[in-house]
Design a protein that fits this description.
593 residues, alpha/beta, Glutamine Phosphoribosylpyrophosphate, subunit 1, domain 1, Rossmann fold, eight-stranded antiparallel sheet, six-stranded antiparallel sheet, 14 helices, 24 strands, globular, binds 2-deoxy-2-amino glucitol-6-phosphate
Length: 593
């Protein structure tokens, strides 16, 4: 994962500009970060573990520099493994994964590798190829499609031949101290912006949005350099300019954390999104007979709820897949709905790469407009919930459910929208009551090692979302099941002595209500500690812990029952003193496969 940036500027304070850009890129990883600036023909390096704000202490002056924010894939979190890396006259920052890095390291067995990172092999090879070029017999072949800096053209072609995996890389070279060199291979995005005053490159165009209104995207397999007022891209040099769709840099949050802000404002945000989806957006008129729905994490789970509505209302068969597990069935997969908050998730983007058959129609349920996914699909259905900052998704997931619910209505030619405002009012009500209503349940759950979340029907994906949120925020082992699956194995886990609690999502409107009453008794008969989340908790015998919910129609229950799941995860994380908006080992957008 990671985010990289490179800037050449006429002013001497390139460090501050790189720092501002890294703040935008932090959603791509915050394990450690660093900046390298060329000053007096040498590199000034500043590296820190943790988030970008740690870098603010000592800026070096300079007109050219590169920066990086890291999500560790190879090598532990340490200053040693923090980019930029320097070797001789070169400095490097990298986003992506070099899949054959250990073979390459073995090839240079005598070389003293300084880091545990895969990136270091790019640096070493680049240096070797630049040196190799110097000793090459120069031929006078046509160089029109080569980079004017021939040794780099040679090195980039050799890197493409020898490196496997996905990589976006920026280099500084003391031999060309007015240029930032770059190369892109695979899914890792890169965009550049150039004017007379500056030239810049970054993993996400938003990181350049304080410098420019438009960017040029670097395509897979291209390389080149930027310098003040000038750039070269090879092969092909045909890249079009596009405007940066700036999402308002939200600085104001009404709570200590973005998570709580985004959790609390969901009803308001969803009603705004509903308004926009109805009034400012033209729905694609598609008549699919089979839909492949794909996504990762919370997006995948929102897709599962969408499948329920589309199959129920529009009677259209849906295949739901985690992006990484999606298999293209030639001739069948004609309509593919790709769900993503960031629009930069590599596993989801890789599906586009795997679609050979061009007849396929792709629809992107995307929140970040201007993202790679939003620019790569045939149709976009925006989520319209505004920028989501907290890594653990709340409003984007409920927003994705909203746009999927509306699409299911449209595909079926029905209109249940009038019920949505009532749903938003009930969401607002339970958000206000949860702090009071959930106290006991949070006490119980914060004193157990294992949590099981059970549900039936269209709430099974919500149980999985609850388990996901508890894992990513509270770092507590949580598993979800369909309550019907219990007796097929998981019931063996239940016993009264274990440090565990079993949470049931049980709306009385469910056509499976009676079966849910039995499932709860099944667990109670094994001595399980049961927690009921329902509008009629009193209907369950011998229940000690419950959260009273408003009544809600079965089909719309996912919008409401996801809230106590988000809240429980948040409160358990607060109890443990965890970083709420930046959970350990995660990033807001997973840009490597
Ligand atoms: C959810 O809280 C997580 N941040 C994660 O599972 C996320 O949903 C997943 O990585 C997909 O991200 P996307 O929607 O940006 O593609």
């Amino acid at each position: 994962m990671c985010g990289l940036i490179g800037i050449v500027h006429k002013d001497d304070n390139v460090c501050e500009k790189i720092y501002d850009g890294l703040e935008y890129l932090q959603y791509r990883g915050y394990d450690s970060c660093g900046i390298a600036v060329i000053q007096d023909d040498d590199f000034q390096i500043n590296k820190q573990t943790g988030s970008v704000s740690n870098l603010k202490k000592n800026y070096s002056n300079g007109k050219i520099g590169i920066g990086h924010t890291r999500w560790a894939t190879h090598g532990c979190i340490s200053i040693k493994n923090t980019h930029p890396f320097v070797y001789e006259n070169l400095a490097i920052v990298h986003n992506g994964i070099i899949e054959n890095y250990s073979e390459i390291k073995d090839r240079y067995a005598d070389y003293e590798w300084k880091t545990g990172s895969d990136t270091e092999v790019i640096l070493k090879l680049a240096y070797e190829y630049l040196e190799e070029y110097k000793n090459l017999q120069k031929d006078d072949n046509d160089k029109s499609d080569s980079l004017s800096v021939l040794e780099w053209d040679y090195a980039f072609n050799k890197l493409c031949e020898n490196l496997e995996g996905s990589f976006a890389v920026a280099f500084l070279d003391l031999n060309h101290s007015d240029k930032v060199f770059f190369i892109r291979k695979g899914l890792s995005p890169l965009s550049i912006a150039v004017s007379d005053e500056f030239a810049a490159i970054a993993s996400d165009c938003l990181a350049l949005s304080e410098l420019s209104d438009h960017v040029i995207d670097i395509n897979n397999g291209q390389y080149g350099y930027i310098q003040n007022g000038k750039y070269e891209i090879k092969p092909g040099n045909i890249n079009k300019k596009r405007h940066i769709i700036k999402s308002p840099k939200i600085s104001e949050k009404s709570h200590d954390t973005w998570f709580e802000h985004e959790f609390d404002t969901q009803p308001m945000v969803l009603s705004n999104a509903l308004h926009k989806l109805n009034n400012t957006f033209t729905w694609p008129s598609l008549k699919p007979n089979l839909i492949d729905i794909i996504g990762c994490g919370s997006a995948y789970l929102a897709g599962n709820v969408g499948k329920y509505w589309i199959e129920k209302y529009a009677k259209i068969l849906c295949r739901i897949n985690m992006s990484s597990e999606w298999q293209n069935i030639e001739g069948y997969s004609k309509t593919i709905a790709l769900i993503s908050q960031s629009g930069e998730t590599a596993d989801t983007l890789s599906v586009l790469d795997r679609i050979q058959n061009k007849e396929v129609s792709t629809i992107g349920f995307v929140n970040t407009l201007g993202s790679t996914l939003s620019r790569s699909v045939n149709h976009i259905i925006p989520t319209f919930v505004g920028q989501e900052v907290s890594v653990a998704s709340t409003k984007a997931m409920t927003g994705q459910m909203l746009s999927l619910f509306l699409w299911a209505n449209k595909l079926a030619g029905i209109d249940r929208q009038n019920e949505l405002l009532d749903v938003f009012a009930k969401m607002s009500n339970i958000i206000d009551l949860l702090p009071e209503y959930s106290k006991e349940v949070i006490d119980v759950c914060s004193n157990v090692h294992d949590l099981f979340i059970l549900a039936k029907g269209n709430l099974v994906p919500i149980a999985y979302e609850g388990a996901l949120k508890i894992k990513e925020l509270a770092y507590v082992h949580a598993e979800a099941f369909s309550a019907s699956e219990l007796k097929h194995g998981p019931l063996a886990m239940i016993n009264q002595d274990a440090s565990q609690a079993i949470v049931f999502l049980a709306p009385s409107s469910s056509h499976l209500w009676k079966k849910m009453l039995s499932s709860v008794e099944e667990v109670q008969s094994r001595g399980g500690k049961v927690i009921i989340i329902s509008d009629q908790p009193e209907k369950f015998k011998n229940i000690h812990y419950s959260i009273k919910m408003p009544y809600i129609d079965e089909d719309l229950a996912p919008f409401l029952y996801v809230l106590p799941m988000q809240w429980l995860a948040y409160k358990l994380a607060v109890r443990k003193g965890n970083s709420i908006d930046m959970p350990r080992n995660l990033a807001k957008s997973v840009t490597v496969e």
